[in-house]
Amino acid sequence: xxxxxxxTRRMEVGKNSEKKVESEEDTNQDSPDSEDSGDSKDIRLTLxxxxxxxxxxxxxVLLKSDSPTGDVLLDETLKHIKATExxxxxxxxxxxxxxxxxxxxxxxYQLRNVRERIAKNLxxxxxxxxxxxxxxxxxxxxxxxxxxxxxxxxxxxxxxxVLERWVNDPQRMDKRTLALLVLAHSSDVLENxxxxxTDEKYDVAMNRAKDxxxxxxxxxxxxxxxxxxxxxxxxxxNKS
Length: 240
Description:
Elements: H1 15-20, H2 22-28, H3 47-55, H4 72-83, H5 90-97, H6 114-124, E1 131-134, E2 139-142, H7 148-162, H8 175-186, H9 190-194, H10 199-213, H11 217-220, H12 228-239
Antiparallel strand pairs: 1-2
Helix pairs in contact: 3-6, 3-8, 5-12, 8-12
């Protein structure tokens, strides 16, 4: 399981840090669902693509129905889940679809080359590019970020969700943003998201994200208006 870590030069944030941002919280608590108002209208990313982009220094899908999505990876995943009898748990599907299990009776359900396929999708959308690097005995394909504007938009969206737009209640958070925070934490890329913040804001952001992902998924998933699948995915990662 991945963990949230602080930069070594930082001290654990105290109560004073929270007080300094309380005024910002009060100002923004009334509009938790407006986070995407500044999103790019030209480029639409899947959650998998957003998590991979956050993890690149220049994994896990939430499914609501078995209707085709138009995304090859998502539709392949839906096809596997729909065809499986008896049904599997969320944790089992995460292990199968990410290749974390080598059960010989389940190999047909593993998605192949997931990271590379997501990267190619981002290349097609103009966010990454493809380069060949020579390592003496072999060549390696890499995918550097070319559209830094899109990545920074995504980084700012997550930073704002735990700072300026923090609502201190996961049930009031934008559901897609909540899902992305959970997946970014489970993929160990939150450090990338918050690394550009000042020391004070970094500590506040990390502590709030830590408090969020350490909530009991069994309890949160049963609350009114909760998106059960988000908490089921978090619970599965917590057990891994």
